[in-house]
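Duplicate of #3305? Posting structure anyway:
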């Protein structure tokens, strides 16, 4: 985490996850440049997007292009962007959008009625980046997905719309393990009521931030996110994620893209055993898994600075070897 980040838990609010330094000034200090805009998806949704680019490198000389997908309840404008900032400082051009119902994008807050439509949105946006920037065509192209974004990244890979050189999956939500999956008849009850009131936010769950972010000061920073969602999950979203993970879990043998999986052994939000299963079953010839002893879900922000640095360096080394 950057040295000037303010982690004073007594502060009621700060402008950005790093503190109160104005955004453009902070990016300049990090030697990167950033843009933000709205992208209209093929189905007419207005989706908020951002880029993080190396400042003193011309675009034909970028190490690669990274298309990034955030997780459930998260967005691209708060702690998520610590990762693309780091990658941009190291020569990679990063692009991401707030998916439907998240961050500044259109939709009911944290309601994901159809993950396949979200995949369509992501693919359309990523292709638009390549279409507008012809110099990107010959650069290595990677996906990066966190948690639910990891599942979305695999679905993007299965579509095969973009020629990709690899994917980084941080604690991917590939399958709901048996020890975490609701027992019968709970899934059936949820599915029944979701038909009538899909947006109802009543599904009981533990505080995901408490489970995801290990360092208390960083947990407080994560809670300050003005566009985040900490309410109960909506019925329709939970049912959709159960269906998606059931589907992805049956397709692990079909994963052929080079990939790096990053997972903490103490993660209770997504199951590291499922990541091991992905690594074992995938037919990818180039596949790597890193299980970090004692680390939890938020590997790239919520751990100690020393642990974050370990994970970052593993990720960067993997990218550099393929760029």
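Output from current build:
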């Amino acid at each position: 985490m950057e040295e000037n980040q303010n982690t004073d838990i007594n502060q009621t609010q700060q402008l950005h996850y790093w503190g109160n330094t104005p955004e453009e000034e902070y990016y300049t200090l990090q030697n990167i440049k950033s843009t933000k805009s709205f992208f209209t998806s093929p189905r007419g949704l207005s989706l908020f997007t951002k880029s993080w680019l190396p400042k003193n490198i011309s675009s034909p000389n970028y190490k690669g292009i990274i298309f990034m997908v955030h997780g459930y309840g998260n967005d691209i404008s708060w702690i998520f962007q610590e990762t693309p900032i780091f990658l941009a400082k190291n020569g990679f051009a990063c692009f991401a959008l707030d998916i439907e119902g998240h961050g500044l994008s259109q939709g009911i807050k944290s309601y994901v009625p159809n993950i396949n439509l979200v995949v369509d949105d992501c693919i359309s946006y990523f292709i638009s980046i390549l279409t507008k920037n012809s110099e990107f065509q010959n650069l290595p192209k990677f996906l990066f997905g966190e948690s639910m974004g990891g599942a979305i990244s695999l679905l993007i890979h299965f579509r095969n719309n973009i020629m990709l050189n690899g994917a980084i999956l941080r604690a991917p939500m590939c399958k709901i393990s048996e020890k975490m999956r609701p027992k019968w008849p709970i899934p059936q009850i949820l599915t029944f009521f979701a038909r009538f009131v899909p947006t109802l936010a009543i599904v009981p769950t533990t505080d995901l931030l408490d489970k995801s972010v290990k360092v208390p000061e960083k947990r407080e920073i994560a809670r300050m996110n003005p566009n985040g969602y900490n309410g109960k999950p909506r019925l329709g979203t939970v049912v959709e994620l159960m269906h998606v993970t059931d589907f992805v879990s049956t397709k692990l043998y079909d994963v052929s893209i080079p990939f790096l999986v990053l997972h903490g052994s103490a993660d209770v939000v997504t199951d590291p055993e499922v990541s091991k299963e992905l690594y074992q079953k995938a037919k990818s010839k180039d596949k790597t898994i890193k299980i970090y002893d004692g680390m939890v879900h938020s590997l790239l922000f919520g751990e100690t600075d020393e642990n974050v640095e370990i994970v970052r360096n593993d990720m960067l080394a993997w990218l550099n070897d393929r760029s």
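Confirmed duplicate; merging threads. Residues 115-132 form the longest helix (18 residues). The first strand starts at residue 32 and ends at 40.
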